[in-house]
Amino acid sequence: MDTAKDTGRHLFTARTVTAVMPRRGGGETTVFRGLSFDVDGGEVVDVTGPSGSGKSTLLTAFARLNVHTSGTFALDGRDSDTFTPQMWRSVVAYLPQTPTLIGDTVADAIRLPWTLKVRHSERAHEPKDLLTDAHIRATLDDMGCADIDLDRAPRDLSGGQAARVSLARTLLTKPRVLLADEVDAGLDEENADKVADLLKKAADNGTAVVRIRHRAPDGRATRMVVLKDGVLRDVPLPTAAQVAAAARDDDFGGDDVAAAASVDGADGADSALRKER
Amino acid sequence: MNGYFDIDIWGLVAAVVMVLIAAGISALMKTGVATSLVWATARSLVQLLAMGFILQYVIRQDNVWLVIGLIALMLLAAVQITMGRATGAPKGLVGIVLLALVVTMLLMLAIVAELIVRPKPWYAPQLVVPLTGMLLGNTVSALALGLSRFFESMRERYAEVNTLLALGATKWEAAKPSMISSIRLGLLPSVAMLASSGIVTIPGMMSGQIIAGKSPVSAAKYQFVILAAVAALTLVADSIIIALIYKRCFISYDRYFVPEPAKQLSLKDLIRLRKDVHPDESAAELKRAAADDRRMSAR
């Protein structure tokens, strides 16, 4: 199954992904073993599954950030070991669930990736005004973040604003694969929708987007996978009618649906399937 | 001796009584420092007495090997005290701490003793030994503070370090804020010492020289050179250490992983058998060994 030909066909491939966590007080727990995953540019893949099934672990393994994971990863058929860690993470970008914005102002926080060594040579190819306040302003406006003042301290932002700034920071670095770890958790419907739009737009521009989600389906995913009991399997996308129903439920008792989905996303998907039948 | 006042046995007793009163107050307030205060007092009295005799002996003998041996002993003690005070630092730093101390000490002796003061013979114990002592005393506290602060900061900055790495930062870039905060904290005492010298703190070396009849200008010059050199070299030692250890917080493929702190051995642990104190130690040891193995094989 993991032949070289197989890995060459997709933008991003992961083979034999294994996570073994040390247990408190000694011993080890295998979260999953030998998983495979592929994704192509333009896709939006939703990863769901119960809490603790290792969804975040899987995404941090893809970015090769996680100490307790191993596996073989390739981009355009090129093995991650032939990249420097910095190069790999700038093309396979992991976006943490909790936004950590570093800098005195929002503008500084967004400029941060461009102060790193890995992008020094890249900057020569980018427009000269890339990091001016005016350009950042225009980009944020374009992303539907007109409400965010560049001179504000990041800690003064609301949860939704911080999530969008964090996303904008990563999107501006134009990764080929974007691994979004439940970036819409704890956001209200309106902000969650804005975040989903940003991700969809990135996918339309050719980025491969992988989202961990606990919310009800929002109709933007092109594919859905469930991680449960150490197994990663494809599930059919919810139909348009189901998405509409979920949105309608959100308008009235949206919290219940979201809560039910977040308790056990996999079961949520399963019940959606049952309804379909 | 002119202008010198001896302390009799009652003076010592009075000092001890003062410490006991302080210890009593801390015991009443349950601060938990009473025992260590009494212990440190006893230790300091014994150490000072011993050093007095050793110093006198070494100065009288005027033998280069005795001077080198004494300095080597002081260095080892400095390493032990640094490691003991650097809470939160992982084990396996002894070599690096020793290296930083040796380098700064050699710089100190080369610049201050041999270039500025130029004593005869070059190893003059009355200059070289106290000079080393002043440098080590200062560097030890700076290094211990700096080490603790660095690892504490790297643990606190968990989310920030991972975010930086995810954005493509190198190990150096991800660790830099912790390095700066650690070096800054380690240097604060030196800066405070420089600023307060002559007003709040009157260095013993300087008063000694004035008592011995030296001119105030020459005593002050002497003291200034030493204080300035100590402050500057403390920065050197701190920088060497931090530059050599920051990589300890990362493993293969530049992934963030702060090693577990080394177990601090208190006197109690040494008196009782360590097994009684840490029944779960073998499990923790095994886990750490496994982590080490993984690290090695990952490389």
Automatic annotation (TrEMBL), chain A:
One Pfam family of this chain: ABC_tran
Annotated SUPFAM superfamilies: P-loop containing nucleoside triphosphate hydrolases
Domain of life assignment: Bacteria
Gene Ontology molecular function terms on file: ATP binding; ATP hydrolysis activity; transmembrane transporter activity
GO cellular-component term (any): plasma membrane
Residue ranges of every copy of the ABC transporter domain listed in the record: 14-254
Keywords assigned by UniProt, alphabetized: ATP-binding, Nucleotide-binding
Protein name: ABC transporter ATP-binding protein
Automatic annotation (TrEMBL), chain B:
Localisation per UniProt entry: Membrane
Transmembrane residue ranges: 12-29, 36-58, 64-81, 93-117, 123-147, 185-212, 224-246
UniProt cross-references to InterPro entries, sorted A to Z: UPF0014_fam (IPR005226)
Region (Disordered): 280-299
Keywords assigned: Membrane, Transmembrane, Transmembrane helix
GO annotation, cellular component aspect: plasma membrane
Topology of the protein relative to the lipid bilayer: Multi-pass membrane protein
Superkingdom per UniProt: Bacteria
Matching PANTHER family: PROTEIN ALUMINUM SENSITIVE 3, UPF0014 INNER MEMBRANE PROTEIN YBBM-RELATED
UniProt record similarity statement: Belongs to the UPF0014 family.
Protein name: ABC transporter permease
Source organism of this protein record: Bifidobacterium criceti
